Batch of 4 targets.
Target 1
Amino acid sequence: MNKQRKEHRDRLITLAFVSILLVLIYGPAAPWFVSADRLVYDQVASRLQNTALADGLIVSIDPAAKSPAALMSEYGQLIRIFKEQGARRIVITQPPALGPDAALPVWAAGLSDVIPVFVPSNQPFSAVATKSGFINSNTESDGIMRRSPLWQLNGGVMSPSLALAITLADPKRVVDPRMSMTDDSVYLSNYAPIPRLSAADILNGKATAAQFSNKTIFLDASLPLVSAAAVLPSGQYVTTSEITATLLANMEQRQSIISPTWVRALEWLVPALLAIVAALFMPGRKRADILFLTLAMVASLILIEALMLMIFRIRIDLGRPLLIFLGAGILTWWLQGTAKQTAVNAYKRGSDFLAAGRLEPAFAEFRRCKPTETISSVMYKLSLAFEKQEKPERAEAVLDWLKRTHGATISEAGTFGLSKDTPKRLGRYEIERKLGRGAMGAVYLAKDPRINRPVALKVIPIEKEFEDEELKEARQRFYREAESAGRLTHPNIVTVYDAGEDKHLAYIAMEFLQGSPLTPYTDKNKLLAPSKALELCARTADALDYAHNQGVVHRDIKPANILYNMRDDVLKISDFGVARMTDNNRTKTGIVLGTPMYMSPEQLNAEPVTGHSDLFSLGVTLYELLAGEVPFKATNIAVLMTKITTEDPTPVSNRRAGVPPSVDSVLFKALAKRPEDRFANGGEMAIALRNCARFASK
């Protein structure tokens, strides 16, 4: 599936998913999801700064052990004291109970005189009080009171709430104009406490007149906490008087929380817009981008709700839209992950087809993968395979695909002049500059003019290295080893594209990696972090495990043959198939198979070499990357061979801080003298190294 089709499919899946979420969250399953709105609101509202009623005072009568007559009398005495002491207004939030045929007490006749008295509606006292209004302390399904209506239909007449009735009765106050936009409701957040006195202290003369003068006094028979009528979003338990005092303070100080009609419309529009954004912009992005976009949008929604509440005192519920976008983000993140796994599977299948010589299905599988350097490498190898099968039109099709998807062009890092010893061309490859030189020859940066692609060209003076009678055998071995290396298709192995001979020089065209060998990181002043060194060697072990399963042994694993691009975090093993070139030519050049200090005991003893030898060399490489020097050192080859074949290395954890002791066990096993005592394969060694990396310093 190409990228466009996959994005289109993911968009359809995401759109269908968010559409179902919209229907569920705002439809039959709304009661289950409305808690998301409540949660976000409660977290913000509980931290909202509210100002207490400046002149408020709560007086509570303790109704315990009092008869109805005594309670009625106590109410009358307190109201008389408040009026005598010049109270500004009296709010009886909990009038004393009267029987159905009982007459009003004598003191009730004075409720409508100069000092206004307010009582709840539908009470006998409401007929003689200055004003009345309803008290609503209904909670939502979770037991929390968040909403308080301002008006209520009562006998065909719209009646105000008690707090609103008190506000409207004051001719000097202008009602908050925002109240006309509230849809007849305001919202509670937290209670800013006002002073509270005991009725017993007042009747015993312990209170002064100054405590009542010009005060708004709330009179009830509800003790704090014990007689709580509701719980606010802040978690505070409040009585009826405290609820009324809070609402009155918010109205008079114009800090009521409202929800205008346009906000209700926006709460329906936002989820739809977020669903469209999620379906259009998230599919096809990298998983990190999806994660960032999702978290950024979630944070933005929370911030918008918090700012609207704290600055404008407007409630807008964005909890459910937040859930919808979060769900869409998780879905697209998962879809991108499944796409990555699909690409990995396609790459594995394509590699298997290529190794088996089934080129057409290999081409089909590789085209399903995301364009990368690794894919471009195997596609280039595939085009050469088509040429060998005498299918030039299919080779051209592969190259055309490469040009369309990768835009294969050589890096224009600069212009390099060629020395007089550097060939300008080998085979069809145009040489740009020398990259380096090793014991077996030079490495050049070259260009394949067919697709303008950079390659690393390893050049070996084969005719100078071998005598006439050995040259034919050397050529056969050269092509055989190059072919073996060319079968290797792994993300951590440099891909071999081609091999040939020109101008008495044998050459191998390989993938060009913009990186450098690990050799500089063996300097004690430039060592990698232990966890990083362990991870890089684990990747190398994985690659060796793959190569060994293909029947290919490297024979010369060392830091110089492990290339690493730190910027892109790409590691690749180079020189597969090259090390064996001088296997039968040791006496002429003085070069033995491999590099002595990294060689296994069986290599030094000229015994048959298996993949276990590569694991030994990798153990030496890891030791050097951690400690800054190889485990076995000597001034001559004879002493070195003795140490490698008989001595155990010094534990590396004793030589460097941050290296866990478990690494010593891994190295002792990798550097075992007998091959059968080492790790069974590279995969087993990779697992052990990654387990050690978890406990190593970063």
Note: The chain has four domains: 3-47+260-339, 56-252, 425-511, 516-581+589-693.
Target 2
Amino acid sequence: MSNSQTSGPSGGVLIVDFGAQYCQLIARRVRELGVYSRITVPERALFTFEHMRPAAVILSGGPRSVYEHDAPALDPAILHKGVPVLGICYGLQWLAQHTGGLVTPAQSGAEYGRTELAVLDGQDLLAGCRPNGTVWMSHGDKVAKLGPGFTVLAQSEPCPFAVVADRSRGFFGLQFHPEVAHTEDGGLMLKNFVLGVARCRTDWNPGNLVESKIAAVRELVGSTGEVVLGLSGGVDSSVAAVLIHRAIGQRLHCVFVDNGLLRQGEREGVEALFRDHYHMDLEVVDASERFLGELRGVVDPEQKRKIIGRVFVEVFREKAAQKRNAKFLGQGTLYPDVIESVAAHGGATSTIKSHHNVGGLPKDLDLVLVEPLRDLFKDEVRALGRELGLPSALVDRQPFPGPGLAVRCLGEVTREKLTPLRAADRIVREEVEANGLQRGLWQYFAVYVPQKSVGVKGDARVYEDVCVLRLVSSQDAMTADWELLPLPVLKRISSRILNEVKGFARVCLDISSKPPATIEWE
């Protein structure tokens, strides 16, 4: 199976991922400045640099120690390309090690969490930053000595080299993480580096990518090639479908697999929009019995995801085989899908959860991948969808996980559990959207917790399960905060669920942020 994706404009920022869990946050922050960013692994950094010709390089954080014999290997030649370099956390330590400095275990100098940063030199990188702001530290090693040419721009109590620079060579380093919201002036520091130091062009606008994406699909597929695409009805696959359809018309064949784990009205909505409105070639496959049969008795969350991914591939593969002329496979894969599911360089980045549209496809599927959204974040896909003219009800809808309600139904997944869960989810969506509260939320849904709880209904004692409300705000799903709806709305949701839905004796509210929790319960 081969892959193809469109690279962004040259002159952007190349980000070398040393295994940072939030490396894509750096990429997002750069793109929010109107500058294209691209993440690469250390082993391919020089190759990607020559292909991309970036205006700057950012070295990410990472969980390893630079002095370990098997630490991620980045060729120091990257420092001789004549562009500014910013090292973050591990990236700073790597930069110090390869410019004559010394890195050692931190011992008493280790820092974790919020720390006050004292600015000594408020020029260029730190221009406009508060003199004693809060930054987010997370490092067990430290720079013990700087190499020739470096000066200290800021420090914290246990970290004398919190911000350093060799201005003559355009090298800068931060021992903390500017990409996270906990660092008060982190966004300003990245802006100062990207726009001030590196003077990058601000020509990145995902809404303007329609024609270039269409051209890339046409070039890849050719004038006679046909594409088969698994359409879920979510934002990603929908935008990918409309984009590919715009490029090749009826040579796109969409397959919608009803796995029995959908929200209420999902299947009917997909058929109405894509078959009736866009007039696409759409085949709907009811495989609910097959999926639920495979999930019978399974309680482990990761096993659920793998089963759903496997069965989806099996069903999809059977249908794709019927499209004899289709040699291409369309997918709505996004940047976060790739980075969350695949270790950046063979294991340093932890795998959070499986995505069936990334890691579950068999190598012998013998189809060329068409993934026009693979280099985009969710908000950028929404912008692209708006430019394509998709209805706001679809473009702005909350994300829905690939495994569907299975990861919101704890324990074994059965029809008996899915029925009340689906009804509760409908109530949550209706009340949130009726009050116009969805614009401030990333996701809002119900979770089925099979924990019996005593209740009273109609003067009779009941012993039923628990429904949990999950309401979060986020920019990219990598971090998220729980949100509280107005009390009258919460009361109405709770009242409706307990009165209209059979199976729940109690409604609870999840007030966990990510991290340490995840957005989905499984």
Note: Confidence is low (pLDDT under 50) at residues 1-9, 340-360.
Target 3
Amino acid sequence: MSAKEEIDKLTEELKVYQDKYYKEGISLISDNEYDRLTDRLIELEKEYPEFQHPDSPTKRVGSDLTNDFPEVRHTIPVLSLDKAYSDEAVLDFFSKSIQKEGGALSFAAEEKIDGISMVLYYEKGILVRAVTRGNGEVGNDVTPNIMTMPSVPLSLPESLDIAVRGEVYLEKADFERLNAAESDESKRAANPRNLAAGTVRRQKSSEACRVPLTIYCYEGFWNDKTQTPPDHIHILSKLKALGFRINPHLAFFDSDKEKAREKLASAGLDGDAYAFSEIDEFIKKKTAERKTLPYEIDGLVFKINELDVREKFGYTEHHPRWAIAYKFEAPQAETELLSITIQVGRTGRITPVAEIAPTKLGGSTIRRATLHNQEYIDELELAIGDIVSVSKRGDVIPAVESVIEKNDKGNTTFVLPSECPCCHTKIVQIGGLQYCPNYDCPDQVKGRIAYFASTDQMDIETLGPRTVELLYNAGILESIEDIYSADYSAAADLPGIGEKSIKLLEKGIKESLTRPFTTVLSSLGVADIGKKSAELLVRNGFDSIDKILDAADRGDPDSFASIPGFGEITGKRIVEAFSSDRLRATIEALRKAGLHMDSSLDREENAEEQTFSGQVWCITGSFKNFNPRSKALKEIEKRGGRTVSSVTSKTTHLLAGEGGGSKRADAERLGVRIVSEDEFMAMLGTKDDGEKHEDGQLFLF
């Protein structure tokens, strides 16, 4: 028998043994025999790596080679969820969704596992990437560690291109056992989630495989839309058939219990059926069960079942409009409300903020908490000097929840001022929110400029909020368009600014002229158009600012609403925004300044410098000039190169920084060219000029 034939035979045998053991709990052979076969396969794969299967059972064992975790861009929406803190809020979500749709809807409810969000990407049925949530757009590729998890299929019974979202977690009993076994008290994890998060990022997958992580999967995204099941519960059913673990504690809501029961049965799923009127009963039941579950949950997730309605409702920049997370009671503390300050955002929204006596909450000291709006203050009957209960909603955002004890100073319920605290324009009410309608309000202007220049937008590194404030107060910057026409030499007379800082600022502004059209579009600050929305617009034909303006001139919100993920409300908002004379004047000024207002300009710019065309690059280690490393990836892609997350025989270059691990060894073995950071800088036609900038701020000399 040849080496290839033996590897093929052992691979298939061990896959059968693993599937039976991990999915059905059946041992077909003894542990000793299983270990003997596994060791033999490992030995053969080391000697003949070219014959190793991409879904080899040895991936479960892990490797002692050091992994690094490159950043990978997601191809599906990986967003957070809107939050609810009462059964009334969940029922309100149900009723508003039904009213908005104008017809019957059903809803699935799942436990919100307190773990690590993960996206599993399969190509032709083979697991090719496992990526953390990251910032929702870019996550870390942790594939080697996830491959060690028996609950994650390495291959599927069908040749599918699919992305699967799930939550990686550690059961309570395993956490207690592992923590107790750790002799060094300082290395013990605070909770199962922390230990799971640390394991997912272990440098050696052979260490990760010793922690019994598992996963529940809850969403599937088919690359071929025609293969997508008709609704959410059929997606869950299909995922289960493909070998994924789905949470058996599924609940399903419809107008009456019998309808819910019938739909669950049609999908072939077990679960609890409820009528809408039983929300309160369901939440009480799950709250009581929480402590008895073998894993941690921090809430419940309610989703519209019908996929066509989900597409119609679409997404905001932060969350889908078709789902909501009910959060269990958050940690709370008591403190005194010292005062209320008023913030004016870049859109003019007025937000009251509670200034509270410093108090410990959730491991940190907080001094401020959100109050939302006047309606919320009225509901609490909140007054200065009251003793209040403060929580961290979602374990992140401090919020005033209730009044524990009224003040003894005679202070009555706080009322927002009738005028903008910045420009003294009369405040207007829009829905439940208050706004300053003055587009020229200084706080709004400074907010728009700072947003435009921020790291996530045009990335003018030396133009942060403090610098914007300084230049605005000096009359040098009074609008976004002024960034490109201002005479910065006048700033030399300002306290703390010298010629070198002005040169750094001008350099940052010049570099921003190369930003692609999608970045310019999202930086304008239009509601509902962030980076993802801008990319969707371009992919759906709106690849220039003129096409967007033409649609606005026609009063055609449907052309935007028809884009998957947008919806009717977003379409109307875009038309309204781009009908504004002020925004149009800004756009024209930016166009004259040389910013990209057409995606073809991006292509032309790239076409002039395709020096990496036909090359396949991989990255390892850390860098002085590229932090995060995604900046180096962008430079490669701008010049026509392709980037990959691992070194293979098709890789042409490895960009190697400090601390690189197994990828360098792979590159040396395969004869891949290894490029140092200095060599890479030379290839880009750039040198390290030694200029360092503070995070988003101008150096003050």
Note: Residues 616-683 form a domain with the Rossmann fold fold (CATH 3.40.50.10190).
Target 4
Amino acid sequence: MATRLGVLVFGAALAACGKSSSSSAPPGDPTAPAAAPARATVEITLLYGSEKKTWLEEQITAFNAGHPTAPDGAPLHVTGTPSGSGEAMTAILGGTAKPTVFSPASSAYVTLLDEAWLAQPGHPKPLAPAGEPLVLSPIVIAMWKPMAEALGWPGKPLGWGDILAVSRDPKGWGGHGRPEWGAMKLGHTHPEYSNSGLLSVLAIAYAGAHTTRGLDAKGLAASRKFMADVEDAIVHYGQSTGFFADKMIERGPTYLSAAVLYENLVIESYGRTPAPALPLVAIYPVEGTFWSDHPYSVLDADWVTPGQRAGAAAFLAFLKARPQQERALALGFRPVDPAISVGAPIDLAHGVDAKQPQTLLEVPDGPTLTALLATWRATKKPADVVLVFDKSGSMGGAPLERAKAGAKAFLATLDARDEVTLEFFDNNIYPAFGPVPVGASKAELEARIDGISAGGETALYDATRTAYRLLAGRRTASAHRIRAAVIMTDGTDNKSTTTLPELLAELGGEDRAATVFTIAYGSEPSRDALMAIAKAGAGSFSEGDVTSIIQVYRDLASFF
């Protein structure tokens, strides 16, 4: 075999030499035809809703592996960045992201992007064409199967009215014979950060207006009380639909009774390891819901070249081909190709119904969506937040100044109706300031933050327990508020009388008084302890340093 290979190579070399010798121009002759220059690779960038991350990552890898080329022969290469739909829109508007393609979870965000883009100076034309849908997934209310059955599922059509009825009943789930389940606890994402939050608020507005089409200012006004009453069941908001799915499955019914998710996330829950303690099922609101249509919008921007536009069209054709659509179905999405039959896993065995949704709602125009967000801000559940701030000696210098800036950025994102308490600690727990409304007291809150200096050691566990007990003591006064503690520290506890096991036991009790969020600042804090505190307190854990702490605080504000 080796000899034969050598003969073939040698023969090929002779053939090449012979071909060269027959040329009229000798080697090195300047009259010889020049080799064609290599074509520059055309980079196509996607900024897309993270709900379809698994599917898109697979397809981007497969597309690039095929060494695709544009019609003119230029090599193509696709990269993608997952993001919350609202985050992605904000990044494009702010100029920090300049993708070729914007693919949020819903066309509603394409509409909002254009509305905001045209409102900026120097933007005379729309930025984002409507685009073609890639896959479909309806917005659903995910609920634990026993709770849904208590409401009449699957025989009875359920919706927002049923959520509201349990929420407003003084007996909570006791009105359905299950007092041990407590109150109705609902979760949906923040509509200014996340597509599912935007569409859930829009669906609630339609339900309150008793219509399925043509929502306008009059309809929004009619829906205000209904929206406020439904929002009163909220445990907290959030930035990511996936966060609610993950935490709901991890923490069980004591954390959330129901959450607004995508149908594919309910399906995905059946493949989790370990499996949830109870199965989830999808409720398709009888008042109506929306498809998340995942539009593929090639931006009409000056940073998108004709070559990128052609490459984006080639990738779109690839995504809509049958093999890619069948893979989307296997992951729980509904294909946009009508020739592909919808079957497993979109079935009752995975908690969903292929015949639903029966009633679809209309996405209104940009001005109405903008007015919707203003209505939601006026009716959303306000917060009672204790901001716990580590001022120990290790915070001195730049870390303290950046942490102060982060805390003030957090205040800036809160609603005027939200109430804040400041609690500072080192080896001592200092008397709290508050609760005071952000709108009337923002200047004083900022002045108190600016006035602190670093010193002392770290009594983290005592400070956390103190904040939690402050909120527990205000349970009645703050019954219609999101109660939460936000704990920031750059160190490890070395002065508390409370032990970590004692603290975790109190935070993780059945009758939770508040949600606890933790921030590990810098490189020295005990990450494991802070993660355990956030888990016991049914909140989230974040990390930041002097370069990122401001954004960490801003991101946390999405929970309120």
Note: The CA atoms of residues 9 and 288 lie 70 Å apart.
